Amino acid sequence: MSAAPLKSLDQKLARIHADPAGCRDFILADAKDADMAFGIAAPGPRSGESGFKSLADYRDQIREIVRQGLVDIMLLSASNVEKLAIEERCFAKSTVTPAARANDTSDIWVVRGGKYPRLPSRSFRTATLDHIMHARLDVPAGTPATGADLGLYSITFTNNLDQDHQALQDYRDFRIEAERRGFRHFLEVFNPNVDPGMDAATVPGFLNDHVVRTLAGVASRGCPLFLKIPYNGPAALEELVAYDPHLIVGILGGSAGTTHDAFMLIHEARHHGARVALFGRKINLSEHPLTFIGYLRAIVDGSIAPVEAVRAYHGDLARLGIKPLRSLPADLELTDQTMSYR
């Protein structure tokens, strides 16, 4: 029996920490956890039809991307970890690491008719660590995970003492449980989802200070592997990256936007010090996710520039017989996208 392949995530993290200044590795993740935010709409609209794709469609796309092997992490809901990682063993012979959304704060409850994203974020965890790791409860500590031993934990600070105090207490409880269970995590920190009572220009510093302050009291065994934050511009990203070379900073993708939006975002974030990008809707809502991911990887590897990549992507769509969502001139536009679920 051949040995399981080494996970590219673990190899890249080791190389980055060994040489933070010189290592050029970049970690790319596909966020297919949208069923914990959007519900029925998570798989995206059906091409040329009304309604949305099915869960089966969503899982088929996940399987294809795992087989492609260009992403380092596949982020899923706990139910999809059970189906794909445990039952089907999709990741057993792959370099891709499965991960699960470990909490689902109220600001990502983006359901039709709901107003939750406009209200101050509240902590909540649907998934249990046992279910993420083993798909069942009361598994003895130390039992190797058959599902995922990596998860995303999310916090949205709102500048409200009671709400932020509760969010930090819940994160503390999660870290203790995760360390005892041998469960790793990465930390997502959103910009405030409600008016935080400060000028918009102050928000990036507010987020950076909260990240550093939150983690300053955490020993290395309890720290996240890396961060997932909005891209708040080059100055804010560079400030956080420069503070600690071993605090690996990643950016989130946010809304779909144009292809140039996506390609420029990952290029700019890479240029200003990000070492990770987690793109969900930008991949899922693209015309051909496998080709789209191929260009994301080429951009962070430095083999193609964003504008050239947009043109090449449209050329590939034409060869594949796929009608683009936008004309090439429209897809080359840069639009102002909010980098969050909202």
TrEMBL record:
<dbReference type="InterPro" id="IPR013785">
    <property type="entry name" value="Aldolase_TIM"/>
</dbReference>
<protein>
    <recommendedName>
        <fullName>Fructose-bisphosphate aldolase</fullName>
    </recommendedName>
</protein>
